[in-house]
Amino acid sequence: MRKRAGLPKAAAAAAILSALPLSGAVAQDRQPPPEIAEKLALCVTCHGENGVPVVDKAPVLFGQEMFYLLVQLRDYRAGRRANETMSPIAKELSDAEMKGLATYFSEQKWPRIEATAEVGDAAKAERLAVEGQCSQCHLSGFVGNSRVPRVSNQKPDYLGQTMSDFRDDRRKNAPAMAAIVKGWSDDDIAAMARYLATL
């Protein structure tokens, strides 16, 4: 599948939405509730109809914990987390729509992301993980829980961007994470992102 480079503006996503038929536009394990169907069709223009994102720096949402997803949507709406695409979209979501979308995505099966690591990535990433005590929050296997995300088999471009944002103080809604990656180099972040993506 050919990927688009970078996240589109919200207006561009809305234009794509207008071309999508709502019935059959989203491939899923069950039909979404009608009250979120239109918003969901907008979500999949970046995050993918089958859970595999079609935009490089968009994360996998299928199978992520409901409460974590809900908190992130609230943070986008409140300005605690910022993204040129997600921020304006979240501002238009009601509390009920946020909960409905978070619940829907959490109930889907995590898709398998194809990724490759480079020689030396595993050793470097495992050292960084021990030093940063990553498994204390993300748990064994980096599967996450209701308060921290699953990062195993997540999109490497998204992981790299997210860790860079924490390190460089562009993302401020998880101070503990920012503190851990503060001293990481670009090479450290790239190795960790590639390693996690292959798990």
From TrEMBL:
Residues 1-27 form the signal peptide. It is found in: Periplasm. Keywords: Electron transport, Heme, Iron, Metal-binding, Periplasm, Signal, Transport. InterPro entries: Cyt_c-like_dom, Cyt_c-like_dom_sf, Cytochrome_c4-like, Cytochrome_c_Oxidase_Subunit. Residues 28-109, 120-199 form the Cytochrome c domain. Heme c 1 binds at C43, C46, H47, M86. It comes from the Bacteria. Its main location: periplasm. This is Cytochrome C.
